[in-house]
Structures are given as C-alpha cells and as structure tokens.
C-alpha cells in the first residue's frame, strides 16, 4: 500500500520521475525549500511501498519511489484567505488511481483547519485532463488568466479554479468573474 506522508527535504532528491511531463511546472531547489520551511503543513508526498526481491545472486530493493507530491500554501486576508495549490503532480505510471484526489483532500482539510474561505489552483487552459479532474473534485473555473504561463517559447492562458470551503457558508468566493484578467491583475501569485 502506498504511503501518504509529510514532504521531507530528502524527497527533493526523488522528484525526477514525477516531474517528467509537459504539464508539470518544475521549480528550483530554493523554491521547494521555501515552501517546506514556510508551509510544511501543506507539503505531502505519496510514496510507493518498498518491496525487496531476492534471487540467488542479487538482492535489490524496489519501491520507495515517489508516486506524487503536492506543494501548497495559505495566503490572503479576510474573505480572500485561502489555500493555494502551487504544484500537484502524479507520476505518469501512477495516474488514474485517485492519488491526486487524496492529495487535494489533504490540502482542503488543512485549509479548513486554518479557516480558509476557499482553495484555488491554476491549470493550463490546454490541460483538459487536469481541468476535468479538478471539476470532478468540485472546483469551478473562477476566471481565465490571460498569458499566465509565459516564457521564451511558451504563452498560454490559465484557468483559476476554485472550491468554496467550510468558512465560506454563502459560497461567495466561487461566483465566477465574467471577464478574463491579466497576470498583473491577480491579487496573489
């Protein structure tokens, strides 16, 4: 059975198999460390079980590889106080078995304990699978962010997806905006 546990600094050495896909944003070591020291309650990994195989000549240990991880934080003030998913990634060979949902539920529970009004995340507009997964988890497209993902060879819009949490009893945080915004107009990044 997979192990759902807190993110450790040593997990930074095991991210490669999870980050190898075009929709996963990979950050610098310092960025991950900043999250780990500032918001450790939001940092989680799912790790494969360790299996030991014996043969007459070789003893090898298989498993212990990361299956997925999440980095998140809480930010804002008043009714804008929210949990924000910065990165959620599941290794390609472990997708479609509910791991992303487990990581998201953990983040939402942490955000509820911190009395956040909503949780949010950004997903590439072209990432139909990601959009579908988050929609099934109860997230709505709150707004479109023009050219959110922009770099030397890349320019793409993002969907800012939100889900109201327990503190938002009137669900005001998830009333969608009627127009797209630019990255400069975002309250938090």
UniProtKB/TrEMBL annotation:
Residues 2-166 form the N-acetyltransferase domain. GO terms for cellular component: NatB complex. GO terms for molecular function: protein N-terminal-methionine acetyltransferase activity. It catalyses: N-terminal L-methionyl-L-asparaginyl-[protein] + acetyl-CoA = N-terminal N(alpha)-acetyl-L-methionyl-L-asparaginyl-[protein] + CoA + H(+); N-terminal L-methionyl-L-aspartyl-[protein] + acetyl-CoA = N-terminal N(alpha)-acetyl-L-methionyl-L-aspartyl-[protein] + CoA + H(+); N-terminal L-methionyl-L-glutamyl-[protein] + acetyl-CoA = N-terminal N(alpha)-acetyl-L-methionyl-L-glutamyl-[protein] + CoA + H(+); N-terminal L-methionyl-L-glutaminyl-[protein] + acetyl-CoA = N-terminal N(alpha)-acetyl-L-methionyl-L-glutaminyl-[protein] + CoA + H(+). This is N-alpha-acetyltransferase 20. Belongs to the acetyltransferase family. ARD1 subfamily. The keyword Nucleotide-binding does not apply. Its EC number is 2.3.1.254. Pfam families: Acetyltransf_1. InterPro entries: Acyl_CoA_acyltransferase, GNAT_dom, NatB_acetyltransferase_subunit. Component of the N-terminal acetyltransferase B (NatB) complex which is composed of NAA20 and NAA25. Catalytic subunit of the NatB complex which catalyzes acetylation of the N-terminal methionine residues of peptides beginning with Met-Asp, Met-Glu, Met-Asn and Met-Gln. Proteins with cell cycle functions are overrepresented in the pool of NatB substrates. Required for maintaining the structure and function of actomyosin fibers and for proper cellular migration.
